[in-house]
Design goal:
alpha/beta, 35% helix, 9 helices
């Protein structure tokens, strides 16, 4: 998936108010048989069976097909999903995170995530933000009132702000993952960045 440094993301949102939105919803099991890592392939499969009917026609009343939310994510537009409770439950398939990243989403906000899915998102350079239930519901309300509502996610300061109301909350993130996101590093990149330190430590241990 594309590596892009995180700093502050301010964007309109796609409200997917589905509690226990499991990984089979996020990407149906049949897509797990493919070996491609093409982001668009998995992005097109994101929420496929809720977005399309049996004839592959868009389901008009599904949120992602409504005109105000149907535009593909881009800078400042729909880069953030506000999801229901317990986002990413079910199987641990990494493809679910590939689908979200491939669709162009950079942040998923919920009041709770399945742990494995949350880690998969981080590994795919998608930031999972955990907020209170009250703040989550406020975001849904603001977006329903005005789909142009923007949310600002400030990773350096670990805050998320509803720009419609001005209310903010702090969120937690592992320090290592925060560093990697802010520097567009995956685990291998991080090791390569620290090659000299690793070699120096190994030399020191050999001479101990």
């Amino acid at each position: 998936m594309a590596k892009e440094k995180f700093d502050i993301i301010q964007s309109t949102c796609i409200p997917i108010e589905i509690d226990n939105n499991n990984t089979d919803n996020i990407i149906p099991a049949r897509y797990l048989a493919f070996t491609t890592r093409d982001p668009k392939f998995y992005g097109d499969a994101f929420m496929h069976d809720l977005r399309y009917d049996a004839n592959n026609e868009p389901i008009a009343d599904f949120v992602m097909n409504k005109p105000e939310y149907s535009a593909a994510p881009s800078k400042g537009i729909h880069e953030i999903i506000v999801g229901g409770q317990n986002w990413g439950s079910g199987s641990s398939r990494e493809h679910a995170a590939w689908a979200i990243a491939g669709y162009g989403v950079r942040v998923v906000i919920s009041n709770s995530f399945a742990d494995i899915h949350r880690n998969n998102l981080l590994n795919c350079f998608v930031l999972p933000v955990i907020v209170s239930r009250e703040f989550q519901l406020e975001l849904f309300q603001s977006i329903a009132k005005d789909p142009k509502t923007e949310v600002k996610v400030d990773l350096p300061n670990q805050t998320v702000t509803n720009m419609a109301t001005g209310k903010s909350e702090k969120f937690e993130i592992n320090g290592y993952k925060k560093y990697c996101l802010m520097n567009a590093l995956d685990d291998i990149d991080f090791l390569l960045e620290n090659t000299a330190k690793i070699e120096a430590w190994e030399k020191k241990q050999a001479n101990a």
